[in-house]
Write a structure and sequence with these properties.
It is a single chain. The protein is mainly beta. It has one helix spanning 3-15, and strands at residues 20-25, 28-34, 48-54, 65-69, 74-77, 93-94, 99-105, 108-113, 118-123, 130-131, 136-141. The strands form 3 sheets. It has a 4-stranded antiparallel β-sheet, with no helix packed on it. It has a 4-stranded antiparallel β-sheet with strand order 8-7-5-10, with no helix packed on it.
């Protein structure tokens, strides 16, 4: 992602009424937050927050429980076609690189692949829920 693309994204968010946009390209992501519409106390201090990060090996804030997060924005499906059992259930062991669910992004069914190994301790979403990029889907222990 080059600086012209980043500047254009900031400009488009500034002109829109969006509060936040996340753009992912390869292993890089950029989050543009529009604080103009949410800062009514002091209009002189209108600011934008621009954050870049890599999505590989994101650290969890809770060291005892790791999370598998959404790699796309869209509708989540815990099974491939809705007719079969979920790919993983609470208590299942998952390995790094294992497909754990799917996200329907713009009519494309994209796999969510676990970047960690462990045991599923909690499923944080239901099949058919809308998810945001980076939203926790599963909690792992071990």
């Amino acid at each position: 992602m080059d600086i012209k693309q980043i500047a254009r994204a900031v400009e488009l968010v500034e002109l829109s009424q969006l509060h936040e946009v996340t753009i992912v390209e390869g292993w890089q992501s950029i989050r543009v937050v529009n604080n103009l519409h949410h800062n009514t106390m002091n209009p002189v201090e209108e600011t934008y927050s621009l954050e870049t990060s890599t999505t590989q090996n994101d650290a969890s804030s809770d060291s005892s429980k790791a999370q598998i997060t959404a790699t796309y924005v869209g509708r989540i499906y815990l099974s491939e076609d809705g007719a079969n059992d979920d790919l993983v259930s609470k208590g299942d062991q998952v390995e790094q690189g294992q497909t754990v669910c799917f996200i329907d992004e713009l009519s494309r069914l994209l796999p969510v692949v676990s970047d960690k190994s462990g045991t599923i301790s909690d499923i944080l979403v239901k099949s058919g829920d809308n998810v945001e990029y980076g939203q926790a889907i599963f909690e792992l222990k071990g």
